[in-house]
Amino acid sequence: MAWATAIQNSAVTEIYIGGAADTRTRLVAAFAEARAAKLAHSHREAHYFPHYAPRRARHLAQRHIESGREIVLIGHSWGGDTALRVLKGLSPETIPLLVCVDPVPKSRLNPPPRPLNAEHILFIDARPTRPNQSDKVKDFGQLFCGTLHRRLECAHTAITADLNHFAFSQMMLTRAEDGLSALDRINQIGQISQRSPTASPSSAAQGPRG
């Protein structure tokens, strides 16, 4: 008896949350739009929200959870702070994946909550050997508001990327030690392997016994 593996796909909603500069740079917005176009007419969806719209993002996520969809949260820069707050708002529901891409907190006095209701947490930390202006913006924010390293010390996967703060797309493709990138992990969500028995070639060749 041999086993064949079939892949069943469940419905997945990817929610991307941009940082403070995304209204100008559209780094995350453009990535989310490209994902939405690629995933059109499939069981998956991709949506974008600015960092200042946590309620809208949470309401969408809650509606989709109630309809049986899997939720993936991806936040960049200040969007990472917002993603943590959205995740907390979904409790006690648990999502399969949270991705914080070089996140920056918005306030030292009101830090976002620790992520407790995500099955897998992926933290990408940009540490470029050649900093540029975007890294200076990040450093300025961390100088006054601190970092999210303690909040994300529970991350299941941590990636240190030799990339600049605005290199969102490249960071999404940077591989961890296990060989998987953030985008790889996102693509894996909703894929359920099912093993089903099939007749092996040898048993079929032998024919019925009697």
Please tell me about this protein's structure:
By secondary structure, the chain is an alpha/beta fold. It has 8 helices and 8 strands. The strands form 2 sheets. A 6-stranded parallel beta sheet has the order 3-2-4-5-6-7, sandwiched between helices. Strands 1-8 form a two-stranded antiparallel sheet. Strand 6, helix 5 and strand 7 form a beta-alpha-beta unit. Helix 3 crosses helix 4. The N terminus and C terminus are likely disordered.
What would a concise description of this structure say?
It contains eight helices and eight strands.
Q: How much β-strand is present in the residues?
A: 15-25%
**Tally of DSSP β-strands:** 8
User: What is the subunit organization of this protein?
Assistant: single chain
Which spans have pLDDT < 50 for at least 5 consecutive residues? 1-7, 193-210
The spatial strand order of the largest sheet comes to 3-2-4-5-6-7
**Biggest pleated-sheet summary:** 6 strands, parallel
Give the topology, please:
Elements lengths: L1 E8 L2 E6 L4 H4 L1 H12 L5 E6 L4 H13 L3 E7 L1 H13 L6 E5 L19 E6 L6 H13 L11 E5 L6 H6 L8 H7 L2 E8 L2 H6 L4
Parallel strand pairs: 2-3, 2-4, 4-5, 5-6, 6-7
Antiparallel strand pairs: 1-8
Helix pairs in contact: 3-4
Give keywords.
210 residues, alpha/beta, six-stranded parallel beta sheet, two-stranded antiparallel sheet, disordered N terminus
